[in-house]
Write a structure and sequence with these properties.
Blueprint (H helix, E strand, L loop, with lengths): L3 H28 L6 H26 L8 H25 L6 H26 L17 H21 L3
Helix pairs in contact: 1-2, 1-4, 2-3, 3-4
């Protein structure tokens, strides 16, 4: 039987590899350099990373010692990975609806990738106590107050509704 830690390493490597490939392709889109397939590669790799993300999160929760998220670093990892996932879903939906891969689109794609790679760096800090991310807080968890979370959900629903009305065919 494979241990939870080994499954987490496999899922994490798959997720980070796909996001890293997507980041390079989004950078090429931003610079308007490279092969014409850069847009397809950026979005398909982002989709692959998105599909692997839940497996990395769930195997990570199973592999973590203790009963759930007791370490502030793990809570921040969860926050960053879900923020990255939200941005990536938005990028893919925009592309699916026919949005152009312009400066803003490629930049948000690269921000999504950067958040996920930061999450991976925090995993190295948690498991091996080594990281290149010196700016990541070790003892603080950044949480929104309830009112801010509700406001963001309402804004997201309004923007989605407005976009759906504008893009009817």
């Amino acid at each position: 039987m494979i241990s939870a830690g080994t499954l987490h390493v496999i899922a994490t490597e798959l997720t980070i590899g796909m996001f890293a490939l997507s980041g390079v392709a989004f950078l090429l889109c931003l610079l308007k350099k490279g092969p014409l397939s850069r847009e397809a590669v950026a979005h398909w790799a982002l989709l692959g990373g998105l599909l692997a993300t839940p497996f990395a999160i769930f195997t990570g929760l199973n592999a973590a010692p203790g009963e759930g998220i007791e370490n502030p670093l793990l809570a921040n990892k969860l926050l960053l990975s879900t923020a990255s996932t939200g941005l990536a879903i938005g990028i893919l939906i925009r592309r699916k609806w026919g949005g152009d891969v312009d400066l803003r689109h490629a930049s948000i794609g690269m921000i999504s990738v950067a958040l996920m790679l930061t999450t991976a760096g925090m995993g190295g800090e948690y498991s091996r106590k080594e990281t290149l991310l010196f700016f990541v807080p070790k003892e603080t968890v950044f949480l929104f107050p309830i009112w801010a979370s509700i406001l963001l959900i309402v804004l997201g629903v309004v923007m989605l509704g407005k976009s759906a009305v504008e893009h009817r065919r």
